[in-house]
Amino acid sequence: MTRDWIRRPVRMVSLGAGCAGMVLAAVVVALTPSASAAELVVQAEAYSAQSGGVVEATVDTGGGSDVGYLSRGDWLRYDGVDLGASGTMNISVRVASATGGPGTVELRTGSLTGPVLAQFTITATGGWQTWVTQTVSVTSHPAGAQSVYAVLANPGSGADFVNLNWLSFNAGGPASGWVNVDPVKWNAQLAAFRAMAMAPAPPNAVRVPEFNATCTYSHSLKDDPIVFPRLPGASHMHSFFGNRGANANSTVDSLRANVNTTCAPTPADLSAYWVPTLYERGTAVEPKGVVVYYGSRLADPSQTVPFPLGFEMIAGDARLQAPTPAGSVNQFYCVGGTTGGAIGRSADGNWPICSPGGTLMFQLVFPDCWDGTHLDSPDHKSHVAFTPNGTCPSAFPVAIPSVSFVLAYPTVGSADGFTLASGMASSMHGDFFNAWDNDAQGHRVKNCIVQSAKCNSAGQF
Hints:
The chain has three helices and 34 strands. The protein is mostly beta strands. Residues 1-37 have low confidence and may be disordered.
């Protein structure tokens, strides 16, 4: 999108019921994501009054409108924003900037000079329509309905430095996000699992505790149903495999209701899986195949039980931006090709270059011990842990299948290497949203993992 660098004169606009054609009185959308916290999303264009901004359509699907051409001294006022009871809160803004300022977006309550509720430092995102979501946590805030002002500060110059798409107020903040398992449903699932008869493995079975789901690429979205539930476009680009209906609004019920999946077995596994999109010189490179392994790293795999329906977790760290030279842990690697592996490294040393005909690979391993209480946690990791020594630690006593994504990409590497939607190679991460049929998963855990017999995606020895 080409930016008009001539500043558009915009007078202060106060909108009310008497405005004809378009009414932008503050519209607040109440959401309840996956936890007990209440989330309010305020669209940027739904201001009660403003000075300096221009409403424009976003170019991304589902992005709606944004308020652009914002610079030093501009402001937007939103009336009737119910912040709930005072306490901890996560506050987010979805912004885009081709310049980065330097500048800040300050959220103040009561007036243009009122108390600062939150402050966001704006950096270049890659373009005026390249959107990112910034989040800060506050430990206290005014209670109840408030007038919230978005005040633009750009000390470097008076030039436009940011576009604003929406604001989000998540009452409960860091303390929210714990999702309890339903004990009645979980105990019933466990009882059914323990009552299942084991199918004896044949004498020639490979004695490895493992079954798998064999998947292909499904679709790409800037959505993350676990990290940003019900906030379409709030994340970086993700490549989804498995359930074709997976998006920001996905729930366990919607996943189970959609039987269209790119994973076998179908329709036993309707889970959603996703990773950040891989790019080479700005062009997306999607996996040509993914195998999701369910196994055990325990000394005694027979202690393993299935995942409860609706279980969620994340492996890896999207925020980790660190060099990954050859020999690093959790790095991309090459298989096959004319030399059977890599023929060099990218110019920055962080990516392997595969030999002609080869395949770029990554294996992402998830935790395999669970606290037995929560389907999810605020950081989507605190309810699970890796087994440290072949047994589950006391705080995470329930052994769950060890999930691994093994991703294969058609290699198009060059000296320029690759990038992920989340940044450097070190930021590789993945999400798992369990929507397996309970019986289908239970039989596989019982037959394949508990008795240490390698099974295929059909659950057969």
